[in-house]
Amino acid sequence: MGFRRNVIFWSVSAVTYVVMTLVDALFRFLYKDKGKKVSRVSDPLLLMPASDVAEKIRNRTLRAEDVMAAYIVRAKEVNPLINVVVGEQYDRALRRAQELDARLDSLSQEERDREFSVDSKPLLGVPLSVKEAFSWTGMANTSGVPGRRHIRQSQNAPVLNNLEAAGAIPFIQTNVSEACMWFESSNYIYGCSNNAYNTSCIVGGSSGGEGSVLSSGASVIGIGSDIGGSIRMPCFFNGIFGHKASIGVVDNSGQFPIASEKAMCLLATGPMCRYASDLIPCLKVMAGPAGVAKLKLDTAVDLAKLRVISVPDDAGSILVSKVDPQLKEAQRKAAEHFRKKGATVTEQYFKEFRESVNMWAGKMNLSDDGPSFACIISGKEDGHVNCTLELGRWLVGSSSHTLPAIALGILNDYLPAMTKSADLKAVEKLDSLRERLVSVLGDDGVFLYPSHPKIAPYHHHPVCTPFNFAYTALFNALGFPVSQCPLGLSSDGLPLGLQVVAAPYQDHLSLAVARELEEAFGGWVSPGM
Ligand SMILES: *[C@@H]1O[C@H](CO)[C@@H](O)[C@H](O)[C@H]1NC(C)=O
Ligand SMILES: *[C@@H]1O[C@H](CO)[C@@H](O)[C@H](O)[C@H]1NC(C)=O
Ligand SMILES: *[C@@H]1O[C@H](CO)[C@@H](O)[C@H](O)[C@H]1NC(C)=O
Ligand SMILES: *[C@@H]1O[C@H](CO)[C@@H](O)[C@H](O)[C@H]1NC(C)=O
Ligand SMILES: *[C@@H]1O[C@H](CO)[C@@H](O)[C@H](O)[C@H]1NC(C)=O
Ligand SMILES: CC(=O)N[C@H]1CO[C@H](CO)[C@@H](O)[C@@H]1O
Predict the structure, then answer these.
(1) 56 ligand 2 Cβ < 6 A
(2) Average pLDDT of 371-394?
(3) Residue 430, number of CB atoms within 10 A of its CB
(4) What are 262-272's pLDDT values in tens digits?
(5) Which end of the chain is less crowded, N or C, counting CB atoms within 10 A of the terminal residue's CB?
């Protein structure tokens, strides 16, 4: 029996491997010599972390208007290539920057330091981009769902209010995947967004527009949200930093679609940026005092006392692609770096990771008591897209929904009722895995883990590898904080990177590792270099 099962397992694995290798070669052939790169970021105004921008505006080394104007020029320059900006407030943002300059000019340095202190305005005058799924007064809030085209927001999401109160000035809104449930940002309202390093490649999703606009140097900081990898995948594919905080640290309200009360434990709103030094200040602002109090963000981390556990892959799930050798090599070098720094470095596999997708889906299915996916993509509270019918329309090219959304709608309508007992079993496994990992990590350990098995794939390729989000989804199911870190470029000039995972409320550990990795490996690399 065991032998027969093994034979079946290995045969299926081998066939999957061969088919996927052929599919990869086909995509490579189809996109050969296609695609462009965004030009190098050269204006020094565009090459400063948010905290430097704010500091220089505060002490009048820089004018807020000049900074905003430079980012608007850059956004207009790169958008025809990357297609990420789906809404803008250029005039209003410039006016707000001018007003800020006028106010700062009218004060003495002493008055400025008091009224606009680092503590109260850490993001003074910093241009901010906002994922379209977040409420922003006067702007669209469609999440790429055609039925929501007419909706305009009458208020800001709380996280946006927090950022504005800290001095940030929102100026653009960026593209997402349909209803934020896919890792390619493409939909029938805004179209498809492109990777700045090769426009033939995806930007990831759902916060994909953010990833691409930030890596192009067309924004300083951005707001993302993550229920299965929607901050980390775009940060990885676009070579920037991001942080999915511990559960309940940042207020998730004011975004569409919003997780139901019970599923809220899978969703995390957080910062995306090019410079690791911006992660903590942005996270503090987004979280507000109550959220910050749950963490130890100001605790110094001694890297020599850290335990670094490198987990090379998911121990071999049939559904998920093998990890690219270049990603494994980058992770090995990162681990080696920490060994040199005096940390205790080990390598470990967890066979439970094979079931990441099951555990995530089980948790989602059992938690999700909100509207069905077919209802969400209808754009109406009491609507329901008949996804079976819609699939027929899609096949003849007359649907206004994307294929992944239709497929998810069908699964969501039929499967959960059938899989209730499997879901319960999966969540049981998840709970015991969580208990074990919490004790493995303790308050001094981090995992290094691939962000995704593949380096930024070509457009539409994710349809062939729908389960590859397993690498990020696992940590939504577990509710662990994760910092996403870039690690230079691949042989094709596309970003490499990894996830740094800590136990719940030990965010300061993964954030300290992110800063060290930036210093050692160079962090974000401008496209077009
Ligand atoms: C984009 O990828 C294709 C396929 O690998 C490659 O042939 C092309 O040169 C790349 N374009 C750029 C700008 O790197
Ligand atoms: C303003 O702040 C920047 C960044 O901290 C610093 O380099 C510069 O010397 C300061 N300038 C003045 C006039 O204080
Ligand atoms: C987006 O639109 C929905 C209604 O369609 C609304 O409930 C929500 O408040 C808006 N933005 C958010 C999520 O705040
Ligand atoms: C969708 O439409 C088909 C064909 O009209 C029908 O058979 C099916 O019951 C519908 N499904 C749902 C979930 O409404
Ligand atoms: C959860 O629901 C999805 C579809 O909504 C289904 O594919 C999956 O099998 C269900 N359960 C598990 C444990 O994955
Ligand atoms: C590819 C594509 O359709 N991109 C769109 C993104 O959104 C902006 C604003 O709506 C459109 O102008 C672009 O055409």
Answers:
(1) yes
(2) 86
(3) 22
(4) 788 899 999 99
(5) N
Round to whole Å and give the CA distance between 394 and 400. 8
Identify the DSSP state of 373: H
Please check whether residue 527 lies inside any domain of the structure.
Answer: no
Atom of ligand 2 nearest to the CA of 59: 1
Residues annotated as catalytic (active site), given as ranges: 131, 206, 230
Same domain, 325 and 303: yes
Nearest ligand 6 atom, CA 87: 9
Atom 4 of ligand 1, residue of closest alpha carbon: 32
- Greater confidence (378 vs 252) lies with 252
The verdict on the CB of residue 83 being under 6 Å from ligand 6 is yes
Beta partners for residue 134, in sequence order: 255
- What's the pLDDT tens digit per position in 410-449? 887 777 666 788 889 999 999 999 999 999 999 999 999 9
Q: Are residues 417 and 459 in the same domain?
A: yes
Compute the distance between CA of residue 327 and CA of residue 495 in angstroms, rounded to an integer: 10
pLDDT of 357 reads 93
Q: How far apart are the CA of 278 and the centre of ligand 2, in A?
A: 18
Q: How far is CA 135 from CA 1, 249, 278, in A?
A: 56, 19, 23
Residues 6+ apart with CB under 8 A from 302: none
In a domain, 276, yes or no: yes
Instruction: Tell me: do 26 and 37 sit in the same domain.
Output: no
**Atom 10, ligand 6: which residue's CA is nearest?**
86
59/48 same-domain check: yes
- Mutational pocket test of ligand 1: of 197, 200, 237, 491, the residue with most ligand atoms within 8 Å of the beta carbon: 200
- 4 with 139, same domain? no
The string of pLDDT tens digits covering residues 134-193 is 999 999 878 888 878 888 888 999 999 999 999 999 999 988 767 667 767 776 676 689
The average confidence (pLDDT) of the chain is 92
Q: Whose CA is nearest to atom 6 of ligand 3?
A: 256
pLDDT digits (tens, 9 = 90+) for 8-47: 778 888 888 888 899 999 999 999 999 999 999 999 999 9
Site to probe by mutation for ligand 3, drawn from 134, 135, 150, 225 as the one with most ligand atoms within 8 Å of Cβ, is 135
Q: Are residues 93 and 127 in the same domain?
A: yes
Q: How far is the CA of 209 from the centre of ligand 6 (A)?
A: 11
Measured by CA distance, the residue closest to atom 14 of ligand 6 is: 190
Same domain flag for 295 and 404: yes
What is Dmax (Cα atoms) for the chain?
82
Q: How many domains does the chain have?
A: 2
Report yes or no on 207 lying in a domain: yes
Q: Helix 90-105 vs helix 64-82: angle between axes, to the nearest 10 degrees?
A: 160
- We report the CATH number of the domain holding residue 130 as 3.90.1300.10
Say how far apart CA 324 and CA 84 lie, in whole Å.
Answer: 27
Phi and psi for 156 in degrees, rounded to 5? -90, 150
Indicate if ligand 5 lies below 6 Å from the C-beta of 416: yes
**Which tokens go with 26?**
């086909």
Q: What is the pLDDT of residue 177?
A: 65
Structural domain for 21, as ranges: 1-32
